[in-house]
Amino acid sequence: AAAAAAAAPTAALPRPNSNGEVSVVWFRRDLRTDDNPALNAAVAAGRPILPIFIWEPEEQGQFQPGRGSRWWLNRSLARLEDDLKAIGARLAYLRGTTALRALRSLFARVDVKELFFNNLYDAVSLARDCSVKETLNNEGVTVTTFNADLLYEPWEVLGSGGEPFHTFEAFWSRMQCLSYAPRRPESAPARIALPSSDVFDALREVACTRHELALLTEDEDRCTESLSARWRPGGHGARRIFESFCRHALESFSWERAKVDIASTSQLSPHMHYGEISVRRIYYAVKDLEYAAARNETRGVTALSEEAEPPAPYDEMDDASTLAVRRRRVHEDARRTGCRLGDDTPAGMANMPRTPAGAGSHHTAGKPAREVEGPHGEYLRCLGLREWSRYLSFFYPFTHERSLLSQLRAVPWNYDETMFHRWKMGTTGYPLVDAAMRQLWSTGWLHNRMRMVVASFLVKHLLLPWQWGLRHFWECQLDADLESDVLGWQYVSGCLADGHTFMTQIDLEMEARRFDPNGNYVRRWITQLSRLPTRHIHAPWLAPTEVLAAAGVELGSDGGYPLPIVDPAESKERLQRAVDHLRRIAINGGQATNALTAEVSTAPVPPAESGDDEVGERGGSVPLEGAGSPEEMSNSHAAGCPSREMSPTAAKRSEVAAMDGIDFGKGTLPPTLRDVHDDMSSIDKMNKRKRLA
Question: How do residues 291-304 score in pLDDT, each as one tens digit?
Fold first, then answer.
């Protein structure tokens, strides 16, 4: 009986018959009308369009949007309402515990023929979207999805054997050498057909206003009033910031991007998280500037705005000219980057050095990547890191909870909530760390370099779990982006194949000298230290008593600046003990790990870019055995079930890997890891190779 019930089709919704057919566009984190593939496809379908936004925080689980993110969302939705009103549309708001329930409630009252929305790639959205597609398709509603968040879909960038990459350099090189360019951005539709009045009458039963969603409580709204003076959410604000960045900061981006005491970055991250500006529009604008700079041409930045006349889109050309344009652009990119083209190009060929056209390899040999790529290439590389975060989330959706590298899931963390509270409040006694944490509280944004400093301090100096830091960032950030945050925390914590090694502890004094040499950043956010001389600003505990007295600084007293929460030598010793603990676990469990490695990977595993560490060698990847088509990969991955039966080898791998807490049968395919060998002589050999390298 249970099997029969499971096999029975899902009960169809009662379909209204008098409201007229409409198409629904579901806005999520794509709050723009410009270059919105779902909106443009709905316009092309020819039916009246009903744009909707669904607020379902309960479905997000532990990652419900934080206070700063909700403040941004509230104002971004207000700007979207204005943009839609300008083209004749009205945004409807729905409230539900799940998106599917809200949609079904709407479809029971409005005759919806097709639902359009753009893809998301975090683990929660992947599972939700798969459920929505399956359920609504069974109930007679056509669901069509698009890519509006990435240059390429994750399944378009794979290795020569069809396996996903596990290091950014390999992924980025392969993406740059694909035989086709990203799709050109499209303009916003000029006009949208409104549904009939009967649709809006039926909509009153389920819809609400933006204010009725109660995105912010009264207390939260008062606490976030200061953010309005600094930020302008919405598409217009995003374009204004981007154009200003291109005018004043892009040319110096390569060598000033890490400075924290000046406006050295674009600060587009909150705008990009909610999709207020298209990543493709940014990509092609920077590419156009790069080509213009290479040809020594002067081109006004006003050409970047949507009001400027864009290049002729591909759909306005005939097929022959379209192919010619694409082929010419691809070959220009290949000649400029030094990469070979073709579908038969192996993934390893993409890792060639990028040499400017007309220059010999001796001109770039030994130079940092930013000097070879230039400021435009460096900025595009930052876009590539954003793509990489979604790539990892798609293929390895467990990374928001546990380390991608299995040997780092047994770290003996120090669960000290007092230390964690002092880190959150910016009272650790280390000025650079405290200034960053206070900036995060005040503005909801933090420079990428400071994010790395405070994250590394939490994990390596205090030995607190990186998941705690991830949750705090999620609550405070305006640009709280699960995929990007997970990438950053796993990178700093040593959980990625090409990230910092776990035993690497940053030198806070060196970081301060490099990125805040004059102490301006610390003085801005820690007023207690504003009168200290520059030589003592980053280490006030080393300043003479008379210097502290002259600056009005009291260390360790109530109302004064705190003494350091941890001694650097003690923290390094504690970190070393944790590394030794991991080494012992790896050695004791090495027999099972070696058997797993021998079973899965017969080819030699390439070392990671960061080299070997004391815990184990990193690298390797598991081919997707019988993964099927890209769409099958996407749907089965989001649904949490394999697209077909597992092979005997994959089944055995799943059985052995169960010891490590990984379920390979649910579409989760982390890299095979080459752990430490089971005898000390192997460790000695590994250390010798490291010293020789």
Answer: 888 876 544 444 44
Tens of pLDDT, residue by residue over 95-123, are: 999 999 999 999 988 888 899 999 999 98
DSSP reduced 3-state for 191: coil
Handedness of CA 569, 573, 578, 582 (dihedral sign): positive
Q: Sort strands 111-118 and 616-617 into parallel, antiparallel or unpaired.
A: unpaired
The C-alpha atoms of residue 625 and residue 161 are separated, in whole angstroms, by 10
Q: What local confidence, expressed as pLDDT, does residue 496 receive?
A: 86
The confidence score (pLDDT) of residue 77 equals 96
Instruction: Report pTM.
Output: 0.73
Which CA distances in Å does 309 have to 303, 305, 312, 580? 7, 9, 9, 61
Tell me how far CA of residue 451 lies from CA of 36, 69, 291, 354, in angstroms. Answer: 31, 17, 32, 29
Contact of 455 with 466, CB cutoff 8 Å: yes
Measured CA to CA, the distance from residue 608 to residue 140 in angstroms comes to: 49
C-alpha distances in Å from residue 489, one per residue of 149, 395, 400, 451: 22, 18, 9, 9
Contacts for 585-591: CB closer than 8 Å, 24+ residues apart: 585/407, 585/410, 586/407, 586/615, 586/616, 586/675, 586/676, 587/676, 587/678, 587/679, 589/675, 590/675, 590/676, 590/677, 590/678, 591/678
Rounded-to-integer distance, Cα 516 and Cα 253, Å = 17
Structure-token pair, residue 380:
């595009």
Residue 501 contacts residue 607 (beta carbons within 8 Å)? no
Percentage of residues in the chain having pLDDT higher than 90: 47
Give the model's confidence band at 618: pLDDT under 50 very low, under 70 low, under 90 confident, else very high.
very low
Give the residue from 20, 65, 23, 74 showing the smallest Cα distance to 198: 20
